Amino acid sequence: MKLYFLKSLRSFLQVNKPLAWSQLSHNKVRLAVAMTGVAFSNILIFTQLGLRALLFDGITLVPQNLKGDLFLTSAYSPTIDFGSFPRIFLYKAAAVEGVASASPLYIGTGNWVNPELILKQPTISEDKKDPKKVNFFPNRVRILAFNPVQPVFDLPEVNQQVDLLKIPGGLLFDRLSQSQLGPVSQIYDRVGHVTTIMDKRRTSVVGLFSMGSTFFHKGHVIMSDWNYAAFQGQSKLKNVSVGILTIEPDADIEQVQQRLKSSLKDVTVLTRSELMEAEQNFRAQFPEGKILNFGAVVGFIVGVVIVYQVLYADVSDHLPEYATLKAMGYSDVSLLRVVLTEAAILAILGFIPGFFTSYGMYSLLVAITRIPLVMRADIVLQVFLLTLTMCAISAAIATNKLRSADPADVF
Amino acid sequence: MNPIVSIENLNHSFGQGALRKTVLTDINLQLYPGEIVILEGPSGSGKTTLLTLIGALRSVQEGSLKIIDRELYRANKQQLIQIRNQIGFIFQSHNLLKCLRVWENVSMSLKLHKDIPKRDRRSRSLDILSAVGMGDRADYYLDSLSGGQKQRVAIARALVSRPKLVLADEPTSSLDSKSGRTVVEIMQRLAKDEGCTVLLVTHDNRILDIADRIVHMEDGSLLKN
Q1: In a domain, A142, yes or no
Q2: Which of A57, A132, A362, A394 ranks highest by number of CB atoms within 10 Å?
Q3: Whole-number Å distance between alpha carbons of A37 and B71
Q4: Contact criterion met (CB < 8 Å) for A331 and B81
Q5: Site from A13, A22, A324, A345 to mutate, B interface, most B CB atoms within 10 angstroms
């Protein structure tokens, strides 16, 4: 039975083996070169898109991890980091029909001192040895502050430790912060608390959470609004960076958004995806993104050239054979299909090693930068489609040669 | 008996305007089923041009050319391709695909015939390969075959779909006399078995004896003998 199955499978393959595959697999060296070319181009594209994601992905961490359905931000600021709006708008928003609750989130930055520097007391002589060792660019952390009675994050770790935020000078520290901020999580895990200095005030890490750093912020800390005011002044609480609104379970999110928009001026009302998009659009204006897009385009062109070379060589080498097939009665279209199939096979065969190598490189980048960088399905699909396009373009150019194969010339 | 190929008043020329050069003038020729016709003549006499016209590889410019009762004059590209399906071609060089096994090369011409079921392709290829004495080499690649063996595979490829017309252009020119002889004898035998018409262009006067009829061509016209 099994033997019969194998036999029929074999004869099925015998009959249905596409000519394109035979052409490609016959010359193993050329196939390997083509696959390497496609893989190389894939790695270039993935790396450039990955670096771009590295720049821009982290910036949506805060919107991603917030609770709530609708978000208020200042209408005069392109990003939640720069602008804020008077807290009175939050009370107004809470009164709008369909809004269940409105909670404030304050975003600021603070100078962070690596706790290791405090632990080892520098002696005067050591300072004199290296007088240049002045840190002109202090480590800045992004402070996220909210009222512990109204938790705004969707992070279970944060919500479990929310009571600890009431400790004066206490804060939660993101264990995925950059290493320049010091081995905070290691010390915390060992000792149970970390004491350091932020904004020239003594502070203590009372808990840890996981969110991730970005290209623009080395790390995140979470504080209560009361502590935040104590650090940076009571006036800071007058203005809110993001207003987090939850709506009534039976309310329609779009209707509530419309009502809020019509009753509140000077603030924008955004859904979560709109907020994320706004943050991304703001950073996308930076030239880095364009440079990396350019890199991806270069990778694409490299791929086109390599695949074109391989297909062109294949067509030229076999021109008399292709002309013979035409003479036998194969149509131009069916031969074009052979070359296109070859291109598609190359795309798939080259994509597989290209993908896995890029996956390894992503892991490496994450380990080095500690900025979250995942192989997103949409990027994988995008690169795969780009690879197919790349091979199709190459095939289209290479088939010009094929059209010149005149069956009358083979006699 | 209806002729397989019927040519009347066929003229053909290359080039335009002042450079126009006439290659074929007033060709009249009939080929009947089961006939083996040798077309001979010096180089440049227009033999190959005539062969490519009969093979529907060129468009007919002037005159009438009918293959299996289908007129090629003013036929469009699609019709030309369909007619080519009905013809077996054997070339001076074998032009087989190096990337395919022997039997797969043969079945390339079966793929064009949708009425032949896929599962029959291998068995039909093997049958014709045995007929040309290459049955034991069906699963080999071309690298391991000699010139004569390759030409025999090319004959198998031309004949596997049982065409009514086979066109051969100097099939023996790259072979030594012994294998050349074997090749044409196989052609002759299969043509007789299948009842197909063969038009053979050749310079090789060692093989003239296989023909039922010899047509001589000079300066673009056929000489009556």
Answers
A1: yes
A2: A394
A3: 50
A4: yes
A5: A324
CB contact under 8 A, B52 and A324: no
pLDDT category at A135 given cuts 50, 70, 90 is: low
Instruction: Chain A: give the shortest CA distance to residue B23, in Å.
Output: 15
* Residues in B touching A320 (Cβ below 8 Å): 93, 95
The low-confidence residues of chain B, meaning pLDDT below 70, are: 224-225
If one counts every other C-beta atom within 10 angstroms of the C-beta of residue B155, the result is 26
Partner residue opposite B84 with nearest CB, options A11, A23, A327: A327
- A22: distance to nearest CA of chain B, Å? 6
Q: What is the ipTM of this complex?
A: 0.82
Range(s) of the domain holding residue A133: 76-265
Considering the domain architecture, whether residues A96 and A245 belong to the same structural domain is answered as: yes
Number of domains in chain A: 2
Q: Please give the backbone phi and psi of residue A216, each rounded to the nearest 5 degrees, phi first.
A: -100, -20
Tell me if A80 is assigned to some domain. yes
- Digit-coded pLDDT (tens) for A147-180: 999 999 999 999 999 999 999 989 999 988 888 8
Closest residue to B99, CB basis, from A22, A324, A330: A22
CB A70 within 8 A of CB A257: yes
Residues A346/A35, Cβ–Cβ less than 8 Å: yes
A86 CB-contact burial (10 Å; exposed 0-12 / middle 13-18 / buried 19+): middle
Q: What tokens were used for A93?
A: 């928003």
The DSSP line for A275-327 is HHHHHHHHHHTSHHHHHHHHHHHHHHHHHHHHHHHHHHHHHHHTHHHHHHHHH
Residues B55-72 have pLDDT tens digits of 888 888 888 888 888 888
Q: What percent of chain B has pLDDT over 90?
A: 0
Instruction: Report the candidate in A151, A154, A150, A147 with the shortest Cα–Cα distance to residue A62.
Output: A154
A93 with A208, same domain?
yes
Mean pLDDT of the residues in chain A: 85
A368's enclosing H/E stretch is: helix A332-369
In a domain, A270, yes or no: no
| Cα–Cα dist A65/A56, whole Å | 16
